[in-house]
Amino acid sequence: MDESRKLREQLMPALESKCDEFRLLGYTQVTMDGLWECLCSRKWKHRPAEKRLHELVSDIFSLSAGEYMTFLTMRSYKQQAAGDDELKRVLKELL
Asked: Where are the domains of the chain?
């Protein structure tokens, strides 16, 4: 089992708690994978193993709904832009 997966399992109770909190606030589409991806790219910059466990838990609990929604919005824009590039490539091949 790699280090990131092991760390995620250790942090699962905090992730579940944050997921439940967002759902209570009305954000019903929150997923554990989405939270993990947000935390890794925003709070931890892809290096969660460099922090202590209590710092990671603190980061999870300090994540606001606004930060998470901003992350999802930006990810959606990036995916849409990537899809647009693919569409342009296919159209260019066809024409």
From this structure: 1-94
